[in-house]
Recover the amino acids of this structure.
């Protein structure tokens, strides 16, 4: 028995040793012996980027680009280095030239639903992923006592959920609508004075609501089979922005226990199963994509008081920037296949418009080097003689 125990311990130690990351010191010593060791330089650059050691990361990446452009093209590295230089890591394109917000993408990636203000009221509209074939689902006007908001696809590409809000404060309803025709159906009504962010999860619907008991935002579940409302969270601090995974087994959300908004994933019983972020600032509005392997969210971690879009890779645990812009980039929607990201931005004249980008086309090494060289040149010209 003792011999078996020692063997098991030896195996465990060997596994831990294999999984352990090399240290900065060991990598620097390795590079001192062989400055052209691209693999070691790649590992060192990655650590600098993980630690946000900006000058070291940029310098190390430039050296890596000279040695091995393929390693330097790693998405995590190029997006981080681009953000350090204030350069957009991807190439957002304007999707709609009119104000639109709160976008969601259908599971087949062909259509999107949004909320838009028209005739003095917020309404729900649908269009193709490329912004064409646009039409209204609701048509409330200035003289109506209602507005419609927070649309989300409801388990298929041809049905949605959205909220009906009475402008006089008399109540709110969650509606189900078949896009193929027919009247909208009321799922539930007046469960709280405020509800928002409905999300379909098969037998359940998750949503935000204001709890009179805790005096804060909580997450509720509606059991469609039993017609029951379930209090999923119950804390004095806010928990919000719930969204179901596409398989209905997990919910990504934000908790704010100490003026620090971080993102977590819980199961349908309300138990946390994964912490996504741990940032002293604000991480919010998370959404699943790429078959639940990635999470897009907004954060102020780029500094300057701005909000940008980031992606969390659940396998590698990497977090990389998608946008870098002085304007607010918010409410991301990530496609089920992981190819497309749509977001709302106040770029340009400050109006809320939708932008789309392909996550398969990050900035190239050559383009990033070119932009970085131009920035250096401009900074030299700005220096007084």
């Amino acid at each position: 028995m003792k011999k078996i125990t020692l063997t098991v311990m030896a195996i465990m130690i060997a596994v831990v040793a294999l999984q352990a990351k090399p240290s900065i010191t060991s990598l620097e010593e390795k590079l001192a012996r062989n400055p052209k060791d691209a693999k070691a330089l790649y590992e060192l650059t990655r650590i600098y980027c993980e630690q946000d050691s900006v000058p070291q990361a940029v310098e190390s990446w430039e050296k890596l680009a000279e040695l091995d452009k393929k390693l330097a093209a790693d998405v995590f590295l190029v997006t981080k280095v681009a953000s350090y230089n204030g350069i957009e890591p991807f190439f957002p394109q304007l999707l709609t030239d009119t104000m639109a917000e709160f976008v969601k993408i259908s599971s087949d990636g062909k259509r999107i639903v949004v909320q838009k203000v028209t005739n003095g009221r917020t309404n729900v509209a649908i269009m193709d992923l490329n912004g064409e074939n646009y039409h209204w689902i609701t048509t409330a006007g200035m003289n109506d006592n209602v507005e419609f908001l927070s649309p989300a696809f409801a388990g298929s590409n041809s049905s949605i959920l959205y909220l009906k809000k009475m402008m006089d404060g008399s109540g709110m309803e969650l509606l189900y609508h078949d896009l193929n025709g027919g009247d909208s159906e009321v799922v539930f009504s007046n469960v709280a004075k405020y509800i928002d962010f409905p999300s379909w999860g098969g037998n359940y619907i998750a949503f935000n609501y204001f709890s009179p008991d805790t005096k804060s935002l909580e997450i509720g579940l509606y059991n469609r089979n039993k017609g029951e409302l379930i209090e999923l969270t119950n804390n004095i601090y806010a928990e919000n922005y719930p969204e179901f995974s596409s398989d209905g087994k997990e919910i990504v959300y934000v908790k704010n226990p100490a003026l620090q908004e971080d993102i977590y994933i819980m199961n349908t019983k309300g138990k946390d199963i994964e912490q996504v972020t741990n940032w002293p600032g604000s991480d919010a509005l998370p959404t699943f994509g790429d078959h639940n392997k990635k999470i897009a969210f907004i954060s102020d971690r780029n500094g300057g008081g701005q909000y940008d879009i980031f992606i969390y890779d659940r396998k590698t645990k990497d977090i990389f920037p998608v946008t870098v812009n002085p304007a607010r980039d918010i409410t991301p929607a990530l496609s089920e296949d992981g190819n497309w990201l749509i977001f709302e931005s106040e770029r340009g004249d400050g109006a809320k418009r939708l932008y789309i980008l392909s996550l398969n086309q990050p900035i190239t090494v050559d383009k990033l080097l070119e932009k970085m060289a131009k920035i250096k040149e401009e900074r030299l010209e700005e220096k007084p003689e």
Summary: The chain has seven helices and 24 strands.
